[in-house]
Amino acid sequence: MSGSALFETFTRAPLAFDHGEGTWLVTDKGERYLDFGGGVAVNSLGHGHPHLVSALTEQAAKLWHVSNLYEIPGQSRLGERLADATFADKVFFTNSGAEALECAIKTARRYHFVKRHPERFRTITFEGAFHGRTLATIAAGGQYKYLEGFGPKVEGFDQVGFDDIDAVEKAITSETAAILIEPVQGEGGIRPVPTQSLKRLRQLCEQHDLLLIFDEVQCGIGRTGKLFAHEWAGVTPDIMAVAKGIGGGFPVGACLATDEAAVGMTAGVHGTTFGGNPLAMAVGNAVLDVVLEDGFLEDVQRKALLLKQGLAGVADEFPDVIEDIRGSGLMLGLKCAAPNTKVNMALRDQHLLAVPAGDNVLRLLPPLTVTDAEIHEALNRIRAGARGLSDAITAAAAK
Q: Could you give all domains of the chain from N- to C-terminal order, each with its CATH number?
């Protein structure tokens, strides 16, 4: 055998990290990087957070796995806390965001099935969406680069343009079951859906007896400064998928639903082996302990404003590198004038990590626990990276 034994499905940066400390990652060579990628919005409380470490190690010494054939007290507790903090009445725990979306789609289809409308199974989705990598969720996302080579697209998904609510209305048929949308597109380029659009989607769902599904896998768990991004619009879904930040780095996902929406999810119709295991539940509860503390989310909003204003200053200084700043909370995007891959490399050269996205955007997704000093340090590094790239662009143009 030659080369790596791993599937070659990732183009990895030539970096290997040995350990993390809050907002910092340290390589196996001792180099320190400021982590504003957050494991793609996963490390909501940074690296090595003492409360999460304590919760995980304490649980690891007691019990790892028993399966959902038995009661799991931590699962009941986390489910109740999520229900108390949201619109939901019921929660199903998974291992990932894609699984949470699969559960959400199945929940919507079962709702109509038990209402004696099995023909209603189609879901309307939006251009630029990303809902996961399973066969159903790549069909929901509709992006050719993820669909190519995997056979016929899974039936049941009708895609319209981003924020084209008139097109949504026209796409509704007697077979439509649900509308699925990210309140803030992450992979699609940090594109928030306007409040009025979310309100119109809610109205359309009520008018046509459709279920509104929010994908808050990336924008949830405090990322925008509210526990969930849809709270800013005052619009509630019937079903919601969450993951990433709820585990703070440990694989956890969840599908949340109202009693009415979950009416078809009865014993035996859906399941999971590892979902909701004691380790995951211990960490999920520990994350909520921190995120639901008084003043925590308000502090996220304050720090987000500090970061966004600083980034706006960098964009003004180097318009040939950064066109605009997008997003809300600590889910921000640099709309790049230069190729986002080059901007990403320029920042990595400054030992700052970010995450590329669609629409030539570079995502900044630092831990919600990032400090003011770390924000200022990140801004200094972003400015230095932008200056170097701007100088290179100017020099190339002069030749």
A: 17-47+294-398 (3.90.1150.10), 63-291 (3.40.640.10)
